[in-house]
Amino acid sequence: MRVVQKFGGTSLADGDCLRSAAEKAVSFARRGAQVVCVVSAQGQATDALLRQIAKVTQSPDPREADCVLAAGEQISAGLMAMAIQSLGCPAVSFTGGQAGIRTDCNYTDACILHVDTANILRALEAGKIAVVAGFQGADETGSITTLGRGGSDTTAVALAAALKADRCMIYTDVDGVYDRDPRRFPDAKKFPVISYEDMLTLAQSGAQVLQKRCVELGRRFCVPIEVLSAFCPGEGTLVTDTRKSFLPKLP
Hints:
Blueprint: E1 2-7, H1 15-30, E2 34-39, H2 45-56, H3 62-69, H4 71-86, E3 91-94, E4 101-103, E5 112-115, H5 118-125, E6 129-133, E7 136-138, E8 144-146, H6 151-162, E9 167-172, E10 177-178, E11 190-191, E12 193-195, H7 196-204, H8 212-221, E13 225-229, E14 237-240
């Protein structure tokens, strides 16, 4: 079995959160799964980088802005790999470019054109957990590009599609997809399963659980996307073709 796990910024906010995320990855690896982790920048790191840019210029060059903004995810990737190693499991980190994510040159809002999985597959075949910096790739010149807000979700689904993963698990600060924001509405109802089309409708109406582009990729390549809480155990929401509303069992 092969799984892609994506951890958002709140899931990696401090050392305890990082270790908890690493334990989730290691748990799957020890059950025989090949694991790819995609990580966002920690906490509010991206906003902090944007403030740093604003101190320098109010009209940043998009290419150079991407060089700065991609740093948050790269820090998370290195830290996550070390956290996994500290648990006795081999791991290796990759930038988006090293992970084979090739994009157009629309800096700050690039689109993925192709994923070359060779480096990741070599790591998986060597028994390592591959940790990939989300939200970024590289254009044809090798320049760093970023995929827009929420781009780590897109990274995860694109890798799951390219690697033919059995599932793409999105760990976040809510335990699934709801009809309304459960943090504001106590009577919000969680969907155990939701179709790609209905998830797109929610995304277009302002729901921020998943980036619209990642849902479109999931639908295009039939990637089952599971939205789970990083903090509370239990079932989440499966985003899929509802005619195939199941996941393969873990070993």
